[in-house]
TrEMBL record:
A Pfam family that the UniProt record links to this protein: Peripla_BP_6
Name of the protein described by the UniProt record: Leucine-binding protein domain-containing protein
Span of domain Leucine-binding protein: 35-244
SUPFAM superfamilies documented for this protein: Periplasmic binding protein-like I
Keywords for this protein: Signal
Record GO terms (molecular function): cysteine-type endopeptidase activity
GO cellular component, one term: vacuole
InterPro entries xrefs: Leu-bd, Peptidase_C13, Peripla_BP_I
């Protein structure tokens, strides 16, 4: 072989090796040792021991079948029932052996630790954190997953269940907690979709509050009372006994009641007291106390499904009994192991991308819940395929954007002749109904004046954010982003009046001092802004002075518009039931009637020719219905009985940066053709806002005019 031939052959071999290393995944591990998966859960006591048993069952079945590519799965356990959550989370996040962690237990805990793992590019899989906020914060990132159902999806099911049983009017009573708030937020949303009327909503903090709340809610005789309780049998009994005393025809609907098959309410101490009783020998978990109260016939219930018989037989019943989350914990380890199989085969993939690639593909083969099935699944994953595990809770298939299961795991039941019987509801993957917007796709001009004859006049804007403190970061970011958009359209500062408390840039929690963001990684929105009013002066009086063109002695700017002007009023803050708009820490309010009166006076004072009011607040649809002034259009983030929802979550700052409605509004304005009408803009926003039903109202005003007219355009 000549020297030149040697060089050519060597180069060819190097190119071939490079091709193989890039195009063919490395199935063989660099080491033959265990594959480590972290666990951040309670693992002892009445709450934790059943979860530990489920982990061991899943681990043993995986390893007895041969592990992952011949490597056993080993768990690095951190028991949060006996130690500090944050310290344990830091330990697991820093451990280079760990790419996937199962846990944590609650939604609040997940938000507390998420950033530690995201920074290290590690995947969290929670078996029990069920808040819808988790989906809104982390869907699409690949960083957070869960095998438990999203409570937001569960609310859809229970409203379907009520409708299936003839319910048309419902009242809602929820525990005042993070858990209860999810139902408080989402039940009104789905009630709109299913044409069910919410006759009243209340929250309670203690058992003593229940009787009075039930009495008030049932005065209007709703068909059903949805009761979201803390888990206490005594709370359920209180609701039932109050309904009996009232001789009410209202039928209760219970979410996850603890009952036996005859509908008798079960009572057990909370986890801490139960542990003490067990240790003392005074309590036997198999002799659970039964309250004398029995759930009445016709009652509807949503509960966890009965365990799969095969899983129930395999699962070791501990002295603490079964746990609602044992099947989800078992499945979480299957999901984690599948992600690890992909990571070991495709080392160039991040754990998040590995999770997205195997968990969201619905075209793969279903793998049975057996040792052989697990091994076949791991082998296929390492070969680049996307099989679907069948776990203890069914197929482990996730939505295309990740985080949540495609179908929630639940059971719906009713009481009949003294027994609980199954009353199935087929889950529907619903999207928002277009007809709820109240606007037809093709509509004629609603104005009595032809559009081409309207004098646009000059343009003015009032932008206000009335909440303060770090937890309300998003309201100020919303207002600043609207300000930035108007500036980008060429509106000068002397035609924009900006009222903002402005405490976010200097808040101690702000790790980016002086800066405010509307979306993670996007352009900063505070530094170029020139607020006209900041701090304590951002109040109800200042807003009305600005809108009434009332100049004070300090000469601060107010509207200088006239009867030919186009005016935009954009306000972001908290709203409460009844539609009141809040200032500060609820130190002041503007009621819907007051707001309507303000707009009427603006018309009398010839402040505008036409005006668009945009409200980013909960229950803001009430204000829209209250304003009947000619020439005024009101667009709101939510319907009368709905909350609006936060959108972009920044785990590094541990706060929400924006609200969903405003995010969608700004995005549509930036990306729409200049000819898009206000009607078309609203319809696009309505359909794409996932978590509420934005509203629009107009009185002798046209929606079929260019939307840009109200946002600084010509």
């Amino acid at each position: 072989m000549t020297y030149i031939q040697f060089i050519i052959k060597t180069v060819f071999l190097l190119i071939l090796c490079s091709f193989i290393s890039v195009c063919i995944p490395c199935v063989l591990s660099e080491e033959d040792g265990p594959l480590y998966i972290g666990v951040l859960l309670p693992l002892n006591g009445p709450e934790g021991q059943p979860l530990y048993n489920a982990l061991l069952l899943s681990q043993n079945q995986i390893n007895e079948g041969g592990g992952i590519g011949g490597r056993p799965v080993q768990l690095i356990l951190r028991d949060t029932s006996t130690g500090d959550l944050m310290k344990y989370a830091e330990d697991l996040a820093k451990d280079p052996r760990i790419k996937v962690v199962i846990g944590p237990y609650s939604s609040d805990d997940l938000f507390a630790v998420a950033d530690l793992f995201i920074k290290k590019q590690k995947v969290l899989i929670s078996p029990s954190a069920s808040s819808d906020e988790i989906y809104r914060a982390f869907a699409g990132t690949g960083s957070v997953w869960r095998t438990v159902s999203n409570d937001g999806d569960i609310t859809s099911v229970l409203l379907q269940h009520i409708k299936q049983n003839g319910g048309k009017n419902v009242a809602l009573l929820t525990i005042n907690s993070t858990y209860g708030n999810t139902f408080y937020d989402w039940i009104p949303y789905w009630a709109i979709e299913y044409n069910i009327t919410i006759t009243g909503e209340e929250k309670y903090s203690t058992q003593n509050d229940i009787a009075g709340a039930v009495d008030r809610l049932c005065k209007v005789r709703p068909d059903y009372l949805i009761f979201v309780h803390s888990g206490s049998g005594n709370e359920i009994r209180s609701a039932i006994e109050t309904l009996k005393e009232l001789n009410s025809s209202t039928i209760p609907y219970f979410i996850y009641p603890t009952v036996d098959k005859q509908g008798q309410i079960l009572l057990r101490p909370d986890a801490q007291d139960q542990q003490k009783l067990l240790e003392s020998g005074l309590w036997n978990i198999h002799n659970i106390s039964v309250l004398s109260t029995i759930i009445p016939d016709k009652t509807l219930m949503l509960m966890s499904k009965e365990w799969d018989p095969g899983f129930s037989k395999e699962y070791t019943i501990s002295k603490y009994g079964q746990s609602d989350y044992a099947p989800e914990v078992y499945d979480a380890l299957l999901v984690a192991s599948g992600v690890m199989a992909r990571i070991t085969a495709y080392r160039q993939k991040s754990p998040m991308n590995a999770a997205l690639s195997i968990l969201t593909n619905e075209s793969g083969d279903l793998m049975p819940r057996t040792e052989e099935g697990f091994q076949s699944a791991f082998n296929q994953i390492q070969q680049g395929l996307t099989p679907v595990f069948i776990g203890a809770t069914g197929p482990l298939l996730f939505k295309s954007e990740g985080t949540d299961r495609r179908e929630p795991w639940y059971g719906t039941y009713r009481m009949e002749d003294g027994k609980i019987i199954s009353d199935p509801v087929l889950h529907q993957n619903l999207t928002k109904s277009d007809n709820k917007s109240g606007l037809a796709d093709n509509s004629t001009d609603l104005s009595t004046v032809p559009v081409q004859n309207i004098s646009h006049g000059d343009f003015w804007a009032v932008i206000g954010a009335f909440s303060r403190e770090w937890t309300n970061y998003r309201h100020q970011a919303d207002a600043l982003t609207m300000y930035e958009y108007l500036k980008s359209q060429g509106v000068s500062d002397d035609h924009i009046i900006l009222l903002i408390y402005d405490d976010i840039p200097t808040d101690k929690k702000n790790t980016r001092p002086g800066e405010v963001y509307h979306k993670p990684g996007e352009e900063e929105v505070r530094k170029r802004a020139i607020p006209d009013y900041i701090g304590e002066i951002v109040d109800k009086k200042t807003l009305t002075d600005v809108l009434f063109k009332k100049v004070e002695s300090d000469g601060r700017p107010v509207l200088q518009s006239d009867e030919n002007s186009t005016v935009l009023v954009y306000l972001s803050s908290h709203g409460v039931q009844g539609g009141d708009l809040l200032f500060g820490n609820d130190s002041e309010r503007i009621t819907p009637d007051e707001f309507a009166s303000i707009v009427d006076k603006m018309k009398e004072k010839k402040v505008f020719g036409r005006m668009l009011i945009v409200l980013e607040s909960c229950f803001s649809g009430v204000i829209a219905d209250s304003i009947t002034t000619p020439g005024v259009i009101v667009m709101t983030a939510s319907a009368q009985n709905e909350t609006s929802k936060a959108a972009s979550y920044d785990s590094a700052l541990s706060t929400w940066l924006s609200d969903e409605f405003t995010t969608e509004l700004i995005s549509r304005l930036k990306n729409s053709d200049s000819s898009v009408t206000l009607r078309q803009l609203y319809q696009q926003i309505f359909y794409h806002v996932r978590s509420s039903h934005p509203t629009i109202s107009m009185h002798n005003a046209s929606l079929d005019i260019t939307a840009g007219l109200f946002f600084g355009g010509a």
